[in-house]
What we know:
Blueprint: H1 9-12, E1 19-24, E2 27-32, E3 41-43, H2 45-56
Antiparallel strand pairs: 1-2, 2-3
Amino acid sequence: MTTWRKSSHSASSGQEDCVELARLAPAIGVRDSKAPGAGHLALSVESLADLVARVKRNELDL
C-alpha cells in the first residue's frame, strides 16, 4: 500500500489545497490532496528537486 504524505503545516493553514508525496520506487509520486483519485505525477528524485528549486526561485508561471 502506498502512503501519501503532506506537510504538517498544511493542517494549520486552514486550507485543503496541498500536494501530497509518496515513494513510488524508483520515483516520487505527486498528487493533489483535494482530488486524490484524479491520478498523480511520477517524478525522479532529481526532477522533483529541480521543480521545487525552480518554484522557490519563482521561475515558473504558476
